[in-house]
């Protein structure tokens, strides 16, 4: 039988709202107030998000971020820096106890990412899961070479033509899985790499070249320009098919809206963003 999950597209919002909303949805699911939920969103302004464990001042050129007019926010998920610009971002929030959710992070990635896989197929791409084969490849996953996300596909990341096309991160808190990630429409690689601190230009160029070889945006490989609206339609269909679910629109009450607003203050604070 097909299960019905909540769905919400919050549209284009600032970085603090975007991260507060994901955390709030996790809280609502944890307390049993709402069923599992899938959310789509975009970013205004374009924003650099850093992983929960990243050392902000050591890895990020904050002056460059400000000079470019980008937002800056720390995620509650791990991983490396992501520039959220021309992309559709998704989040999936589901109890760990859900019968379809495996207990390990890697296997849960696989299940949730079936929705992404079907979305890319709907857009006409020959997408597949990356499964690191050699011991060396698996070891490299544990020691990322740069602060930039997307420079290597990890377990069950989605690849097209051998290059990573979706970057996701997952956290488990309060008995709930939160997985969110970037579905790149276009990417400005020079702009992205300008915002990270490298020991020297040679290393920066080397990392940039590795990124180009290993990561790709939808419109780099499409024979036509694919819009965000088309992506929204495709991935809504993809999640329904990949997770065997239907959607009902999520409507939040006033108390829940107030909780989101309180969390916005957390994500705006230097205490949160500069905590490492």
Structure description:
A hairpin with a 2-residue loop joins strand 9 (163-173) and strand 10. Helix 1 (15-30) packs across helix 10 (254-268) and helix 4 crosses helix 9 (228-243). This protein has helices at residues 15-30, 56-59, 62-67, 105-122, 135-142, 189-194, 201-214, 218-221, 228-243, 254-268, 270-273, and strands spanning 3-13, 37-43, 47-50, 71-74, 82-84, 87-95, 127-129, 158-160, 163-173, 176-184, 245-249. With 276 residues, it is α/β, with parallel strands linked by helices. The strands form two sheets. It has an eight-stranded mixed sheet with strand order 7-8-9-10-6-2-1-11, with helices on both faces. A three-stranded mixed sheet has the order 4-3-5. The N and C termini lie far apart (46 Å). The chain has a single domain, classed as BirA Bifunctional Protein, domain 2 (2-Layer Sandwich).
């Amino acid at each position: 039988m097909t299960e019905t999950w909540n769905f919400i597209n919050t549209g284009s919002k600032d970085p603090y709202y975007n991260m507060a909303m994901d955390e709030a949805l996790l809280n609502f699911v944890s307390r049993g107030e709402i069923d599992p939920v899938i959310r789509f969103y975009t970013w205004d302004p374009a924003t650099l998000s850093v992983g929960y464990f990243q050392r902000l001042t050591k890895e990020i050129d904050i002056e460059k971020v400000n000079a470019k007019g980008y937002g800056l926010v720390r995620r509650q998920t791990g991983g490396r820096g992501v520039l959220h610009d021309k992309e559709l971002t998704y989040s999936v929030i589901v109890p760990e106890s859900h019968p379809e959710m495996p207990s390990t992070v890697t296997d849960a990635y696989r299940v949730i990412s079936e929705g992404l896989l079907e979305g890319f197929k709907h857009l006409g791409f020959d997408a597949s899961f990356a499964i690191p084969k050699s011991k060396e490849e698996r070891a490299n996953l544990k020691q990322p070479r740069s602060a930039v996300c997307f420079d290597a596909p990890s377990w069950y990341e989605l690849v097209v033509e051998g290059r990573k096309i979706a970057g996701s991160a997952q956290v488990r808190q309060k008995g709930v899985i939160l997985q969110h990630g970037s579905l790149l429409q276009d990417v400005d690689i020079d702009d992205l790499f300008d915002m990270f601190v490298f020991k020297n230009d040679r290393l920066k160029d080397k990392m940039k070249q590795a990124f180009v070889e290993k990561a790709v945006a939808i419109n780099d490989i499409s024979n036509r320009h694919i819009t965000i609206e088309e992506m929204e339609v495709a991935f809504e269909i993809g999640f329904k098919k990949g997770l065997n679910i239907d959607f009902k629109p999520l409507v939040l009450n006033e108390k829940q809206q107030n909780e989101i607003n309180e969390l916005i203050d957390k994500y705006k604070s230097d205490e949160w963003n500069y905590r490492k």
